[in-house]
Amino acid sequence: MALSLTTDFDLQRDVLPWLRTQRAAPAAPAAGGGGADVLENNYESLRILNVERNGNIIYTYKDDRGNIFFGLYDCQTRQNEHIYTFEKDLQVISCSVNSERTLLAASLVQSTKEGRRNELQPGSKCLTLLVEIHPVNNVKVLKAVDSHIWVQFLYPRVESHPLSENHLLLISEEKYIEQFHIQVIHEDGNKVVIKNYGHLPRDRVAEDFVWAQWDMSEQRLYYIDLKKSRSILKCIQFHADENFDLMFEAPLDISLSDSGFKLVNFGCDYLQDQEKLSTHLTLCVFTNHTGSLCVCYSPKFDSWQQITYSVFYFHKGHRKTFTAALGSADSLEAQAVTFLNLDYYVAVYLPGHFFHLLNIQHPDLICHSLFLTGENEMIDMLPPTPLQSLAGGLLLDGASGQLHRALLSQTYLLGLLRRTCRDWERLAALHGLLSCGGDPRSLEAQIIQWISENISACHSFDLIQEFIIASSYWSIYPEASNMDRLLPYSSLLTWNTEIPGITLVTEEIALPLLKVHSFKGYWEKLNSNLEYVKYAKPYLHFNNSMIRKEWHSLISEEKSGKRRSVAYMKNILGNAIKVISNLEARNLELRLTPLFQEEDNHQRLLMGLMVSELKEHLLRHLQGVEKKKIEQMVLNYVSKLLDLICCILETNWKKHNLHSWVLHFHRPGSAAEFSVFHLMTRILEATRSLFLPLPPGFHTLHMVLGVRCLPLHNLLHYIDNGMLLLTETAVTRLMKDLDNTEKNEKLKFSIIGRLPPRIGQKICRLWDHPMSSNLISRNHVNKLLQNYKKQPRHSTIDKSLLSVEFLPLNYFVEILTDIESSSQALYAFEGHDNVDAKFVGEAALKHTTMLLGL
What we know:
With 854 residues, the chain is α+β, with helices and mostly antiparallel strands. Helix content is 35%, strand content 25%.
């Protein structure tokens, strides 16, 4: 199943045993006229009423005589507490308890003989009561009306001392919301009574609304009012004191004029939800800590052949409308689309038909979202009854009396990654896995194992690229907000492949108009997201184009003998040292792969440049974050890139049992080594197009494997096309390890002929061969004759220098000998392995003999 559900609370498990124990115990003093002795053995009426901000759950039970029992389950102590008993035959609509458990607010209606509420009967009343319950004392009637009332205490985050004033919301079916201010005083020790009992001050919070949603965790009220048939979404933020602010207004391009009255998350009103399930639209608002704001909307069903729903991504500035083909209308009449808030995702669920996992953090590409149809075995595992999505991934199932905690299932997503053949499902599963959190090392190891076995499985994207970019992004994403706009989270820029059974329409929408100008916490992040949508063109994603330009410039200067300032180069190479140190600190296990065994200045330059450019990018755009923290984030990011490459290679190294492998050329490569060589080639292709650094020693190892595994013509083709780089370490070992058989001579000559001049001069001296001598001689002569000016001279050559009489060569050697005799020339070529005129002459004769076949 794509969701992993754990049951945090179950009436049958956590409450029912306690109720039976209370019934069996001796009669206790009644609370509100009833006690444990009134309980009977019929517990069918036991149901959840509300879940408060602190996690405490209020439930109710009705005995055979109609007495209503209120209980509270403390989520911290896992203990039950009897709050109050009404000795009247009433039906509870709504209930709430303040944070100190001293006040109870309840809204009740009269019941008929059948036990169902009878709102339409003349004279029926809805009573909204405020009860002092610590200890039981007065009962005050707040409302006595014919319409329904819902109640909810506010829970400000004040933990240090009891509140002297409580605030209670009353939500009326007559489309207004009031806030009551209730002052309490302590008498006779712990006795709490209402101070302003006769007159409770109140504020009108909202009116003329058709829909409202309560966010208990963040103490926010969302509601929609109709202005000239336009649906305007508004949000009110309640603060720790009695103050509240209208935070924003946002137009919704949906019609609610004939949808009736609808409340979301104001307690658990299961019966009402059942009655309205198939006749009303579904609408809810979801936010998370990153500053996202999503409005999820599913209209009334016009056809059972397909379902349409929309998600307004206000933090991104667009709306996406999805249409899912059902193909079968079985058992849909009593069902509706359910939206679940899963932090970085919104789950859209129609029991028995589909389960869609929408990526709300990165909604631009449809392939980052997962679309599962009724053919999947996980579809039927969620309950078919209505679910309320609460904060923190909590799901309330009022029908069963259970509170579930929902998380993305790593096990399911890993299984989907392994068994699916569809690229879009692989992408969605990969991103879903990386966003799960938990133990990243274990998770990445399992993903790498799959990548190693399916390196060529994906056709629409590069699997290695996507994994490296996405995993590196998620490794530092939690450390600062706005990372999704500053760092690439995917290697893809577009996705044009259609997903069967899903059609998608994307439209730009008007952004919310913020009504306040002082932002903190979530509102500051939302405002930042909205500002980005308004003004950030083009996008601010970091790319390596500047690194590419600077790196090529440094390499060109190195070839020409030029150098940047000492301070600049020290800073760049110092960055690389920090990255490697950081990488070693993160990995205490000894790697089997022979990497990091050489300097590899080019890769160190690339590392250092990436650190420098990325740090400058984040400092420019991450406002309010300490410089030291940004520097550490950058080091972690670049280290993670290199670590992932090492881990991919290490996994394959162990898979093929190459434990004792060392860098040498004495024997041909095995099938296992060829497999590793192929993987390294794929890694090189993936990183080269993104211009990412590689671990020092990567090119040397790749070259050694290439020499051992490839025929000569293939090897040279790889070298000429830049897929194999001739490092000094690899070529040096090649010259020392291989003897001068005809095959090896051909290989060595082909390699030496392709070396850059600077490295070639060193390597030639390691090969005792006429061809090597010829190359050394050519270079020596070229340097000697650079500034030579011809002058008249008499032949004074010592004939003993040469074993044959060859006048042109004799004359040339005489010129070289004269030049070498000058102290300046000897000083210039000091240390050149005794290369002199005699060496040049001998090399010329050997080369000529070889060419003539003598």
